[in-house]
Design a protein that fits this description.
The chain is α/β, with parallel strands linked by helices. The chain has one domain: NAD(P)-binding Rossmann-like Domain (Rossmann fold, 3-Layer(aba) Sandwich), CATH 3.40.50. It is built from eight helices and nine strands. The strands form two sheets. It has a seven-stranded parallel sheet, with helices on both faces. Helix 3 runs parallel beside helix 4 and helix 4 runs parallel beside helix 5. The longest helix has 29 residues. The protein binds nicotinamide-adenine-dinucleotide. The site of nicotinamide-adenine-dinucleotide has 31 residues, from helix 1, helix 4 and helix 6.
Length: about 260
């Protein structure tokens, strides 16, 4: 669907080369925003940006490893130079970690926290000053249903995604006086390359997928576009009284008592 919800706004979306991030970039562009696609995998972001540009939307692909402060700082400067402003930050880039706490290495722990928590903070750190100057902004942190409920052997994914929700509250409170809203969105199971990789790693991928679908109240996984529609609303001025919230979008999964 095409609209004008984000007309005259500029968005910075991390991990926008594929999956949920790509769907968010597409949706925001179709709602009128200029979109910066910040990606560790530049090629994927370039393909997505080219598609948007070919349809007449404003897009910019930038190679960014969000765990590296120098790269985040350079990417933010480039976007501010090109678009003149950043009104929306979507901290979407993330990885899914599923280990056991007794076998997890220190490097794996650091990797999880660096991508899922530190990277989001670094983007906030370098984008907030321009939002403060503009006295306006919307930051959306893509957390997960794992911030509330979790499953076995997903250490430390739940810890990282819970930390992101905690960070959302800190920032929402600190920057509310500048009319900057900060929210966390917690998706349930969404069909993306990340989830497909997880299915593929299971002993019987097809049976594993059928089992996951069977305990979804809506009897299906969500789509990246369904998450993107919600993110675009929360980013827009229509959501002007929503801040500090932990917003579930999980097809009802979090109301299920047992599976
Ligand atoms: N798919 C789901 O079911 C689901 C559910 C809940 C939450 N999430 C969260 O949504 C977000 C997107 O998930 P997805 O399923 O689309 O994942 P995905 O793996 O399909 O896409 C993630 C993107 O982030 C990029 N990325 C990874 N590390 C990066 C880094 N250091 N710097 C910049 N970019 C980096 C990847 O290159 C990739 O393009 C993640 O934060 C994930 O934890 C996903």
């Amino acid at each position: 669907m095409i609209g004008d919800r984000l007309e005259n706004k500029a968005a910075f979306v991390t991990g926008a080369g594929r999956g949920i991030g790509q769907a968010i970039a597409y949706k925001m562009a179709r709602e009128g925003a200029a979109v910066a696609l910040a990606e560790i995998d530049l090629e994927s972001a370039q393909i997505a940006a080219e598609e948007l540009l070919s349809q007449g939307y404003r897009a910019l692909a930038i190679q960014t490893d969000i765990t590296r402060e120098d790269q985040v700082q350079a990417a933010v400067s480039q976007v501010l130079e090109q678009f003149g402003q950043i009104d929306i930050l979507v901290n979407n880039a993330g990885k899914r970690f599923h280990y056991d706490a007794t076998t997890l290495t220190e490097a794996d722990w650091d990797d999880a926290m660096d991508v899922d928590v530190k990277g989001a903070w670094l983007c906030c750190k370098h984008i907030l000053p321009s939002m403060i100057a503009a006295k306006s902004g919307s930051i959306i942190n893509i957390s997960s249903i794992h911030a509330r409920l979790t499953v076995r052997n997903h250490f430390p994914y739940a810890a990282a995604k819970s930390a992101l929700v905690g960070m959302t509250r800190n920032l929402a409170l600190d920057y509310a006086p500048y009319n900057i809203r900060v929210n966390a969105i917690c998706p349930g199971w969404v069909r993306t390359p990340l989830v497909q990789q997880w299915f593929d790693q299971q002993a019987d991928p097809k049976a594993s997928e059928e089992r996951v679908v069977s305990f979804q109240p809506l009897q299906r996984l969500g789509t990246p576009e369904e998450i993107a529609n919600f993110v675009a609303f929360v980013a827009s001025d229509e959501a002007s009284f929503i801040t500090g919230a932990e917003l579930m979008i999980d097809g009802g999964l979090s109301i299920v008592f047992a599976v």
